[in-house]
């Protein structure tokens, strides 16, 4: 049962953060009402990596340029069909060779999403406005439509 010494403010904070669900208070719900906090808590959210990969595929299907920012060796071992190759630590120097407009949608990816995140930040700092970090190659392959 709920501790009687909780203030209304603390109670509201616990409920707002999801740490305390209304059902824990044994408050009756109106007929037909659903405890949305309990429902949300029991429904797992999609993994961020899978979500990023699915969004990357949407961009790719709409014509985004795909850039693999892994090392030369990694790229040689396999990459997405049609992907351009510019290692993340050279993207600022070599992106101009692709002659892209600053508003051209671009998807960058690597092995895990870390290097592609660095490449994304570099491109955005250079004025490219539509850059998406697709994450890791294996996740992209797993989420391919």
From TrEMBL:
Write down the SMART domains for this protein, in alphabetical order. Answer: RHOD
Indicate the transmembrane segments per the record.
none
- The UniProt record lists the Rhodanese domain at 60-139
InterPro entries for the chain:
Rhodanese-like_dom, Rhodanese-like_dom_sf, Thiosulfate_ST/Rhodanese-like
Question: PROSITE patterns, per this entry?
Answer: RHODANESE_3 (PS50206)
> Keywords assigned by UniProt?
Signal
**Name of this chain's protein:** Rhodanese domain-containing protein
Organism, as annotated: Ferrimonas gelatinilytica
